[in-house]
Specification:
- The chain is built from six helices and no strands.
- It has helices spanning about 5-25, 30-40, 45-60, 65-70, 75-90, 90-150.
Length: about 150
């Protein structure tokens, strides 16, 4: 829910989930077991609980796409790749591409975050230097004005 950081966390979490899920599917693990493990590796309790709901939905007989769409966690890109992957039988390679995409997006978001924080840090450092300079020079000026007033 944070303005800038929330999107970054979402991208990182989706990247982790899609990469782990794709690796487990490539290794030949059943979808339900792969979802359970990928949920633990996601690193976000909310998204992990939604992935577990997705696993339970698949165990009841829903398709991967329908259960993923019902969680309302995944972006349209992930849903589209799951859809195409189900039709072509190559979910693992498509989710690997999604993970690469979200890795690049997360890197770009981190660079953008650093660039947006720089001006704020410069202003804060300038304020700190101003306070320190005033703390040093104000007593000297008061001492000089007191000496001039007596002389």
């Amino acid at each position: 829910n944070f303005p800038i950081v929330g999107i970054l966390f979402e991208q990182i979490t989706l990247s982790r989930f899609t990469r782990n899920f794709a690796m487990m599917l490539k290794a030949g693990m059943p979808i339900t077991h792969a979802l359970a493990i990928a949920a633990e590796a996601a690193g976000n309790h909310y998204i992990a609980s939604r992935i577990v709901e997705m696993k339970n939905s698949i165990e009841r007989g829903d398709s991967l796409l329908r259960s993923a769409r019902s969680t309302e966690v995944f972006t349209p890109l992930v849903l589209q790749m799951i859809s195409v992957g189900e039709e072509t039988g190559s979910i693992d390679s498509l989710l690997d591409q999604v993970a690469d995409f979200y890795d690049e997006e997360a890197d770009y978001s981190l660079k953008r975050l650093a660039e947006s924080i720089e001006p704020i840090l410069i202003v804060v450092m300038g304020g700190i230097v101003l306070v320190l300079a005033l703390g040093v020079f104000l007593p000297i000026w008061d001492l000089g004005s007191a000496a001039m007033g007596r002389g």
